[in-house]
Amino acid sequence: MANHDETAIEQEIRSKRLNAPRLTPKQIDEQIAAEYVVRASDAFKDAPVHDALKCLTLCVLVLKNGFTVTGESACASPENYDFDIGHKIARDNARSKIWAFEGYTLRNSLTGRAPLR
Fold this sequence. Notes:
4 helices; globular
């Protein structure tokens, strides 16, 4: 799901009629096949867990091609930990990586460069 800043930028791009090939928030979201999110301390239940893991949220986005991107969010104080906020930040961090990969792919396409094999 696109964030507020992306929505505003997308509206500005459209209002200025910038129509050259580009990526959109919708195209980025369409690359996501699955999402997994966990508080790090819950992910390592069978091992001794450091208290710092109680402040860390991890998000894994599985893309339609099977590639994965990860994002994380950490707060300084365990008392401030909130799973929903951590999830949003970790997901945004993971999703930003999709922008970079898809931008690279689009640029290769625009320049006639074949993808790596």
